[in-house]
């Protein structure tokens, strides 16, 4: 097969590549610039799965779903008549998103709106209590896929009500609390996906550095680094959570993915110089969403992978996972921040 990326089939819970990549594609992908941009998407899409089976009784919950890649993902899912739940912080923006979806896809199952700031632990619990009632009463199917898409790149240092730096709270602690709250609402063979970022390649897993931002650092605060550190941590947390689920006999797999460089409101506001420099080369929100939509519906996976454009990639520039002590420290930091016991997976 010619083309940029070999297609992937899931066989016995493992992704199997088929075909071969051309030398020119290897070279272009190695530049990152011509891989993460819109031209990279178009090359990769040529050998992507052209059609796939939607999971039976699919119900996908997307956080940060009122704009950008999250909203585009909801559009793609509803186009396939999937039940979608949007978890949004703003009632006004959430309602507007729901109205747009209903107008565009009137025959699809009516999308559901849950309101919660992903950094507010009590708000998360309250929102999921409402959803749990609907799942238990069969008004909604169990969650087949939970997508941790909500994200923020802080320009200045700020803290949540729990005292955590905003990026740590939004990308790690809140998602962990949400994952725990949804434990008994997940479908058999369900999936959790962390929407990471290619920027994580340039950040190590460092709990020490993330904790340093949990105290007042004033002029030394670097929002881009804080973002990258937590996006790296999401990839490691996905693997760690997947392994804990497996060892506890839980039939949910956990994956991470990054959408490439997409033209979203968050990128425009937080990385204005980058947004301007990349004008005309950024992916659309829909292009950023399409591989994640596919990943929602692929068969259960036995291992956790870091995905980019339909293909599992190594999350490490040098091919080496962080030491177990650092991964354990991450689990402890996130569990403690989310106010969960260390062994919450096995005790749930």
In short:
The protein is 44% helix and 15% strand.
Describe the structure using short key phrases.
348 residues, 14 helices, alpha/beta, globular, Rossmann fold, disordered N terminus, eight-stranded mixed β-sheet
What do you see in this structure?
This protein is an alpha/beta fold. Helix 6 runs parallel beside helix 7 and helix 7 packs parallel to helix 9. The longest helix is centred in the C-terminal third of the chain and has 25 residues, at about 225-245. Residues about 1-5 have low confidence and may be disordered. The protein has one domain: Rossmann fold (3-Layer(aba) Sandwich), CATH 3.40.50.720. The chain has 14 helices and 10 strands.
CATH architecture: 3-Layer(aba) Sandwich
Number of helices: 14
Q: What structural class should be given to the helix and strand makeup?
A: alpha/beta
What count of domains describes the coordinates? 1
Q: Summarize the biggest pleated sheet.
A: 8 strands, mixed
- Give the helix proportion (percent range): 40-55%
Biggest sheet, spatial arrangement of strands: 5-4-3-6-7-8-9-10
SSE string: EEHHHEHEHEHEHEHHEHHHEEHH
Shape: globular
Instruction: Bin the strand percentage.
Output: 5-15%
């Amino acid at each position: 097969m010619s083309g940029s990326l070999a297609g992937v089939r899931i066989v016995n819970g493992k992704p199997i590549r088929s075909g071969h990549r051309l030398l020119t594609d290897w070279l272009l992908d190695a530049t990152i610039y011509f891989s993460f941009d819109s031209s990279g998407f178009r090359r990769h899409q040529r050998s992507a799965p052209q059609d796939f089976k939607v999971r039976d009784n699919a119900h996908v919950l997307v956080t940060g779903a009122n704009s950008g890649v999250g909203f585009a993902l909801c559009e793609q899912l509803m186009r396939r008549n999937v039940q979608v739940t949007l978890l949004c912080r703003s009632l006004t923006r959430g309602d507007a998103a729901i109205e747009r979806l209903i107008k565009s896809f009137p025959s699809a199952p009516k999308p559901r709106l849950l309101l919660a700031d992903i950094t507010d632990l009590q708000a998360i619990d309250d929102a999921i209590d409402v959803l749990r009632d609907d799942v238990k009463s069969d008004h909604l199917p169990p969650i087949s896929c939970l997508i941790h898409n909500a994200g923020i790149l802080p320009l200045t240092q700020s803290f949540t009500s729990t005292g955590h730096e905003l990026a740590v709270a939004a990308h790690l602690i809140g998602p962990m609390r949400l994952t725990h709250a949804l434990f008994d609402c997940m479908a058999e063979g369900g999936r959790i996906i962390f929407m990471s970022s290619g920027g994580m390649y340039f950040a190590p897993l460092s709990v020490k550095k993330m904790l340093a931002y949990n105290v007042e650092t004033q002029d030394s605060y670097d929002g881009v680094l804080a973002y990258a550190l937590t996006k790296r941590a999401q990839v490691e947390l996905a693997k760690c959570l997947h392994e804990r689920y497996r060892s506890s006999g839980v039939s949910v797999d956990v994956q991470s993915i990054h959408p490439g460089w997409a033209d979203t409101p968050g990128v425009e506001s937080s990385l204005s110089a980058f947004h301007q420099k990349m004008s005309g080369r950024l992916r659309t929100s829909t292009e950023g969403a399409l591989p994640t939509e596919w990943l929602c519906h692929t068969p259960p996976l036995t291992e956790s992978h870091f995905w980019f454009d339909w293909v599992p990639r190594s999350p490490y520039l040098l091919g080496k996972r962080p030491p177990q002590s650092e991964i354990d420290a991450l689990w402890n930091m996130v569990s403690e921040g989310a106010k969960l016991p260390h062994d919450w997976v096995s005790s749930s």
